[in-house]
Amino acid sequence: MHIVDISILSGPNIYSYTPVIRMLVDLEHLADKTTVDFEDFNEMLLKLLPGLEEHHCGLGKRGGFLEKLRTGTYFGHVFEHITLELQVLVGYEVFFGKTRLKESPSLYNIIFEYGNENVGIECAKQSIHIIKSILKRETIDMDQLIKKLIKVKEYYELGPSSKAIFDEAKKRGIPVRRFGSESILELGYGKYLRKIQAALVDSTSCIAVDIACDKQLTKQLLERNNIPIPDGSIAYTEEDAVKIADDIGYPVVMKPLDSNQGKGVVLNINSPEELRSNFKIPMQYSNRVLVEKYIRGRDYRVLVVGNKVSAVAERIPPFVVGDGVHTIQELVEMENKNELRGEGHEKPLTKIRLDDIARNYLKKNHLNVDSVLKAGQIAKLRDNGNLSTGGQARECSHEIHPKNMQIAVDAAKAIGLDIAGVDIIAEDISIPLWDCQGAVIEVNAAPGLRMHLHPTKGKKKNVAADILDLVYPKGAPYSIPIVAVTGTNGKTTTTRLIRHTLARTGKIVGMTTSHGIYIGDRCILEGDNTGPVSARTVLSSKEVEVAVLEVARGGIIKRGLGYDFSDIGVITNISDDHIGLDGVDTIEDLAFVKSLIIESVKPDGYSVLNAEDKMVEFFIKRARGNIMLFSKSSTNRILTKHIENGGIAAYVKDHSIYICNKSKETKLIDINDIPITLNGAIECNIENALSAACALYGLNVPLEEIRNGFMCFQLDANDNMGRFNIFDLGNFKVMLDYGHNIGSYEAVGKFVRKLDASRIVGIIGMPGDRTDESILKVGAKCSEIFSKVYIKEDMDLRGRAPGEVANILYKGLMGANFCPENVEIILSEIEALKAAIAEAQAGDLIVLFYEEFEPAFHLVSRLQSQIQKNMPEQKVESIDIDLLFPAQSLPEKIAQSIHAQ
Is the pTM of this model over 0.90? Predict the structure, then answer.
């Protein structure tokens, strides 16, 4: 039993709206076995993981999985439930799982919800270990296994500050994503996107952070702004430090000039000897040491967010309480086992350090790590209360004096920080600093939030809410409008038409299509970019004001969606394509996959559906938000019922497109004024215009703007590359189209039959991953459309042998009684196009269903340019094809034909 492949689906997906991991697992020899085939397996498993008894499983009740075990369940199912249970044991609330046969006899897709993807993967690996160990009757130390998983969790999990902001963003519905494996978060989409790491926001300037990191520069700015600070100066050597201390008077403090989290800080130094013995401590962190007057009092952290104090905490130095038995070192070790304490910032409290500072502090108080304290005796372990060295926190926001609040805010402003942790020493924070000899001792640019989120004493403060209020003030937008378009055919044209119209309104539109990713007018990445990674690329661009995303079946199945929710979800149509791939065996399966687009629409958004599609009623039941329907017929049964119920719809009547909202009908545009329909001859583009009109109407684009956008969107390679692009080559024409399924071939057939062509010549092909039946259907359909056929193949055979797809297409043609003499098989797409051009007759229309647009477009464009250059004013009767591609590059038969002419 082993893991073959791992996929992370971090957005909404076909299995769940929550993030899941899909693992391809080979059960090997266990494929035909169940749990009852192995003696005591169930008993041993439940002894190790008694929590499995609570799992509902498919029975929908407590103990459902237990019943399955007793009757015998297969090991993929056991793997799924162990993985979920292990995640629960390390602190995640996960419930969803699913196991499905991928390929007989032993390959299974096992899908499970995860809290953290790295922890989820490790839990899955340990699940296999547990199953194998039980089968071998080997002992498993579950305590050690869980500890290992907890260490993985602690390493990969967000820190408490970032986690609090992440959770608060989720609660508010703000899109939030972890950036890599660090604690950097991305909030929002497009032009409203923000980045934040713990309490450091992207609006904070580097200069402000640099100033805060330089303690002496910070002091100078604070002093200039009349903020009380301790006297002191910078020492480069031990002698410098002694002289400064003599000048300002003891007791003093030494701290590294540019460190944080209390590292290397030595407090309450009372003599030159003590200073000299401790000087090496701050020098471990910096080659410059700040020597300051020691201010007596309590250690307070004031969190400033924006122009107000968000929270105040008193920081209490780490200490142990004696029991008359254990040494100080043993007491520290006992306290560090407290489950609230961890390494770094992973838990509310940090483990106590017995470092040189702690040892020197104990020595100063006539103690050492081997001292045994009396019962009840308290021993402080250092002077400062930084949580990072084991200190505790007391929430005291209600105690701070208004004047001290203003001092803290002024300190943050002086440095230039939006968010700051202002450290204050004072006998009592409720008394103005000037009246109690208190002082601001530091200003931190990235303050930790733990002490406010998880104080040892006092109530928790939701400081993450204040930070998000700063980043996104009340009522401020955090997301751009998102339009998602899917379907079997027409999605690229619809996506481009929506983008084109929005761009004319002055918006910077981010678009993903099967031809590339676009930001405004720039193509930033060519190729098929219709998956979640491409969507995230657009949504992460701060230039983008609106996103229009073409979403393909493959991306949905393999990776889910690249966004949380859309404003508009469009399904153009569903037809026979991709059947037999990735577990999609029927039209219903395909509809289920595509329906994720409309299930992920915002409550106030719109699901746009084709009322003529045979799956429309299925989609209506699954759609979220408001529903818009479109149809080429104003009398469509489902559409008219929708209108009667007050719904919004777009339809064709009297050769025009109308929008109906709450039974009020408004004419949008004449079909003849939409260039991509060619006066209505291209019926599929009428449907695409209808779906685009609905999407734009749902975005509140004025009808006049929609009309203007449609009127100037051309049927050419500039506006709609590779879709019904027609090139006039004098006495014949060539059309390039990306038809690759029966629906698109039918749409092209409907159009070309309406043209005045003496012959319609097809250069046909199909992707190799389509079923034999689908390819045969296309071959048969071509017999109805074309007088002459060239069969070519894609360069990417998708698992087929060379010539295999071509032979199936040929069989389809022959099965429909197509004349064999009118068929040629030329496997190279570009060579087939050259052959068709070389043999073209006057009045021909050559239709190429291309795999790669650029080579075909380049060839036809060069030919068209040559014709226009040589004979700009007369009709061309023949073509000097040798000017464009040499005869030796053509098949021998074609070359002979050319030279014979």
Answer: no
